[in-house]
UniProtKB/TrEMBL annotation:
A GO molecular-function annotation: protein serine/threonine kinase activity
Superkingdom to which the source organism belongs: Eukaryota
A Pfam family reported for this protein in Swiss-Prot or TrEMBL: Pkinase
Protein's gene: LOC116288077
PROSITE patterns cross-referenced by the UniProt entry: PROTEIN_KINASE_DOM, PROTEIN_KINASE_TYR
This protein's name: Death-associated protein kinase 3-like
């Protein structure tokens, strides 16, 4: 690794430290909470740099998975992904230190536009596909590509975040994995517990694109089993009142991604080099119209669903020596 890259992304080799993170960092207020982890603000005591800490609670069954997330993150050297800057392995928690990201998720980004069109969708898709191209080149599948994990910064750069479901794939034909993301965005082979490869992420790209073109979900129900059945049967439609103004190239790309056989889906590279993202289609993409106000409603519904799944465990940390200490109060700034 060059000196410039090492400075930008951190040292090439990094191991989890078995000591209290509060030796080196001031842990601050909680900013987000998910199924298995809590995100808190923190500050490097030495450099005074503001960062984020991801506190992943584990038990005897999930300890290896928590460590695996750190191992994946420390190898990521790409501007569209988050890199682990430091890490700690204490009793019951793996804590990953990373750069803070002040950004909005993709639905918030689209929902704030007076008018959205396919050029906005292409902007998001191009950067998301660039991130997946990099991951797939490392034989890593993300397995949780969805609006909440795609952040758009003020400078209009994008970050694909959250690698809790990410896995390294050894076989080109796919591996069995022990991760399932959100059902509405998961590929049929993932829900069926069949071997998974890069193509599972491309299914999620199809779902993501469907959402951004129509502000609706392709697979939705109050019943989780019904969603699973619809996904595995590839049972969806593209109603004219939602997709009537979408270009044929955009609709065809969604259909190519949402197919049952993984090998028939396009790769990230093929989509990036395909007709829909061609510069020749830029003007046509700008003439389309997407009801941006609907994105706010959909984003709120998805956030409410996420909150129901959020962890309820307290964030009391213990040192490797099992001497208990308390993390700072939730309202500390």
């Amino acid at each position: 690794m060059s000196n410039l890259a090492a400075k930008k992304f951190g040292p090439q080799t990094m191991e989890l430290k078995k000591e209290s993170p509060e030796t080196s960092y001031q842990i601050k207020a909680e900013v987000a909470r998910g199924k298995y982890a809590v995100i808190k603000r923190c500050m490097d005591k030495k450099t005074k740099k503001n960062m984020m800490a991801k506190l992943i609670k584990y038990d005897s069954d999930t300890e290896k998975l928590a460590i695996q997330e750190f191992e994946i993150m420390k190898d990521l050297k790409n501007d569209k992904l988050l890199t682990a800057r430091d890490g700690f392995h204490v009793r019951k928690y793996v804590i990953i230190m990373m750069d803070g990201v002040e950004a909005k998720n993709v639905l918030e980004f689209l929902g704030e536009k007076p008018r959205a069109n396919e050029e906005d969708v292409a902007f998001v898709m191009r950067q998301t596909l660039d991130a997946l191209k990099y991951l797939h080149g490392l034989k890593i599948v993300h397995l949780d590509v969805r609006p909440a994990n795609i952040l758009v910064k003020k400078d209009y750069t994008l970050k694909l975040i959250d690698y809790g479901c990410a896995r390294r794939i050894v076989n080109d034909t796919g591996d069995l994995v022990d991760a399932i993301g959100v059902t509405e965005f998961s590929a049929p082979e993932l829900l069926n517990m069949d071997p998974v490869c890069w193509a599972a992420d491309m299914w999620s790209i199809g779902v993501l694109m469907y959402i951004m073109l129509s502000a609706t979900l392709p697979f939705t129900s109050e019943d989780e089993d019904e969603i699973t059945a619809a996904v595995t049967a590839v049972d969806y439609d593209m109603p004219a009142d939602k997709f009537g103004k979408a270009t044929d190239e955009a609709k065809n790309l969604v259909k190519k991604c949402l197919v049952r056989v993984p090998e028939k889906r396009p790769t990230a590279v093929q989509v990036l080099e395909g007709d829909w993202l061609s510069n020749n289609n830029s003007q046509r993409r700008k003439t389309t119209d997407i009801p941006s106000s609907k994105f706010k409603e959909l984003n709120q519904a998805l956030q409410d669903a996420d909150k129901e799944e959020a962890v309820v465990a307290s964030c009391t940390l213990r040192t490797f020596e099992e001497q208990e200490y308390e993390s700072p109060d939730e309202d500390e700034e």
